[in-house]
Amino acid sequence: MKRSLIVITSVVAMAALFIIGAVVYSNKSADQSQNLAVENSAALNRFSSITYGPADAKVHIVEFMDPACEACSQFYPFVKNIINSHPGKIKLTVRYANFHQGSDYVAQVLEAARAQGKFWPALEALFVTQDQWASHHAPAPETVWQHLGHLGLDFDQMRKDMNEPKVMAVIEQDRADVKALQITKTPSFYVNNKPLTKFGHEQLKQLINSELAIAYPGQ
User: Fold this and answer.
1) pLDDT tens readout for residues 133-169
2) Can you give the residue ranges of every domain in the chain?
3) Could you give the angle at the alpha carbon of 166 between the alpha carbons of 162 and 168, nearest 5°?
4) DSSP letters along 47-87, please?
5) 42-215 — its CATH code?
6) Which residues are bridge partners to 59 per DSSP?
7) Which GO terms describe its molecular function (predicted)?
């Protein structure tokens, strides 16, 4: 009986230490993310990046995403709905964190669509059909074209544009900024340069609402 009590006490103590350690690690990681965002603020704001929403919006969401990322495709309509629910107050800048195989190619295609004013429709189309071209076991990024046919894009021009130096420069800059900010997962969000340290829909909504209250008091 005494031996069992000692074992139980030891297990409880170990569990408590684990929980305390996890909390300390989480707080440390949050502080590190915030410090990196402050030290590398320029890495969050590149004029070459595509932005949805009015330029003068006071709440600025920066999302580092991978077009092949399932969570990114799930968060996209959620974020867009929040933006549209606060007209004129929020803007979203999308950056590339291409961790999946073939995602650089897809990013080039998206930038080529952007040159024809169709970035957002193209992104939405590829998110909707993501399971058809972004399989983790057999990704087929070269097949994304068949999911963009309804957008009226000039594919011949896109195939030229996607290899232009300015397109490659955007992707390379984003890759460098991902490294500087030590981003390791997608999507990664920043709201007015503040990182989302606890991942989740509700947590992101709370961070956005907090910044809305600061930027637009009493509204």
Assistant:
1) 998 888 999 999 999 999 999 999 999 999 999 999 9
2) 2-39, 42-215
3) 60
4) TTSEEES-TT-SEEEEEEE-TT-HHHHHHHHHHHHHHHHST
5) 3.40.30.10
6) 90
7) oxidoreductase activity
